[in-house]
Amino acid sequence: MKIGICADHAGVQMKAELISYLQRKGIEVKNFGTDSEVSMDYADVAHPLACAVEKGEVDRGIAICGTGNGMAMTLNKHQGIRAGLAWSSEIGRLVKAHNDANILVMPARFITVSAAKRITGTWLESEFEGGRHLRRIQKIPV
Ligand code: RB5
After folding, report:
1. How far is the CA of 107 from the centre of ligand 1 (A)?
2. Maximum distance among all Cα pairs of the chain, rounded to whole angstroms
3. Residues of the chain below pLDDT 70
4. Taking burial as the number of CB atoms within 10 A of a residue's CB, which of 14, 31, 71, 99 is the most buried?
């Protein structure tokens, strides 16, 4: 599996920790930046990550900003993206099981790095349930 990851300045440290965590699991990671704590605009890294997921250049994505909302709003402008915001392991499970999120979004200013690793692990291990949830996600695109 290959995962693309991006963060704005608020999520730089969490992103670095998650890259190490994923690599220790044997997962290939493509880093879309930013790698600096200098203030920047989340859309500048979110759009390239979304395009890479849509083109199949990476299998899934992870995006981090302060609240997660800027990333989620930007990523979900892409028709092929279902970016889901998760702040607990149970939501990490549900965002895959019910929403088949192909990008996991987390709020760096509201969860710990340990929590982010647990959420990421749960999301990666969870399976999409299909059935009524497939019908529901098929109604999302405009
Ligand atoms: C950056 O200050 C902050 O606005 C950003 O990380 C994010 O929370 C936006 O949704």
Report:
1. 9
2. 44
3. none
4. 71
* C-alpha 45 – ligand 1 centre gap (Å): 13
| Tokens found for residue 4 | 């693309």
Active site residue 98: yes
User: Is 66 within 8 Å of 10 (Cβ atoms)?
Assistant: yes
Cβ atoms of residues 58 and 30 within 8 Å = yes
Contact criterion met (CB below 8 Å) for 96 and 127 = yes
Q: What is the pLDDT of residue 36?
A: 97
45 lines ligand 1 (CB under 6 A): no
pLDDT at residue 3, rounded to an integer:
98
Helix 89-97 and helix 113-125: axis angle, to 10°? 30
Residue type, 66: G
- The DSSP bridge partners found for residue 60 are 3
Q: At what angle do helices 12-24 and 113-125 cross, to 10 degrees?
A: 50
Strand 103-107 to strand 83-85: parallel, antiparallel, or no bridges (unpaired)? Answer: parallel
- Give 129-136 contacts, CB < 8 A, sequence gap 24+: 129/97, 129/98, 133/97, 133/98, 133/99, 133/100, 134/100, 136/98
* 3-state SS assignment for residue 88: coil
